[in-house]
Amino acid sequence: MADAPIIVHLDTEAQTRLTALAEARQQPVEDLAAEVLASYLAPESWEHRHIHAGLAELEAGKGVPHEQVAAWLDSWGTDSELPVPK
After folding, report:
1. Is residue 18 exposed (0-12), middle (13-18) or buried (19+ Cβ within 10 Å)?
2. Are 46 and 40 in contact (CB under 8 A)?
3. pLDDT, tens only, 67-83
């Protein structure tokens, strides 16, 4: 299949990081961006595996309600920090 150009708008920080990594790898920034996207979109990528594992846990009833997680996070750095919700 032929390569198809696309335009992606990045914020300044992401652009800077991508450019720095491409320079460190002595690789054109366009090639690195294509490599990163292809890796992320691969069905066997770690992102996909973790997403599917998380969804399976939720379906098995192993999730923690949002309200409990939010309360726990809100307690961080206070004198009454809550234990990790389970």
Report:
1. middle
2. no
3. 999 999 999 999 999 99
